[in-house]
Design the sequence.
């Protein structure tokens, strides 16, 4: 498994390439030259090619999160856990991270477990949706069924908060 944290958890004293290589060298005991090739491959995969020598402080939140995703992918996991991967981002950066996750879902054979409040994204990308409260599964199933026609009152109440907010905003309010 690999993990993508909501607060990036990049090493501030290491460059982008060193952050991605760290697990490969330390955990998988790879030679640095081999780890660097893998890291560069996944930098390209997340649209961050050419950022090898940057430090996390020089990157936007969306760029840092994409480095976190590259680091997770580089370990060649069977499962990647995403803990609210967009919650620490400014709204305008959310799309770039969701685009990378969407690309992974379409192109790579890796299971992703994503904790998210991005309901539309979950509906689009997920094979299964699980709605939990207090560590207990309230409802689960096909994303369109659970998110469009939830059976449980608690799920309906939760979704109405998010879906109502989206539909009540005037179209031009995003510019405010």
Sequence:
């Amino acid at each position: 498994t690999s993990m993508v944290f909501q607060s990036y958890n990049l090493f501030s004293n290491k460059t982008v390439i060193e952050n991605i290589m760290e697990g490969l060298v330390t955990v998988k005991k790879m030679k640095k030259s081999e780890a660097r090739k893998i890291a560069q491959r996944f930098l390209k995969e997340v649209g961050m090619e050419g950022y090898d020598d940057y430090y996390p402080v020089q990157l936007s939140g969306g760029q840092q999160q994409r480095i976190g995703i590259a680091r997770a992918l580089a370990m060649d996991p069977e499962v990647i856990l995403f803990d609210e991967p967009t919650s620490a981002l400014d709204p305008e950066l959310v799309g770039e991270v969701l685009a990378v996750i969407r690309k992974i879902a379409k192109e790579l054979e890796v299971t992703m477990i994503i904790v998210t409040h991005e309901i539309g994204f979950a509906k689009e990308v997920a094979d299964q949706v699980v709605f939990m409260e207090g560590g207990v599964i309230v409802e689960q199933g096909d994303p369109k069924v659970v998110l469009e026609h939830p059976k449980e009152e608690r799920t309906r109440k939760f979704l109405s908060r998010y879906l109502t907010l989206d539909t009540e905003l005037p179209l031009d309010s995003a510019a405010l």
About this structure: The first strand starts at residue 2 and ends at 4. The chain is about 50% helix and 15% strand. The chain has a mean pLDDT of 90.
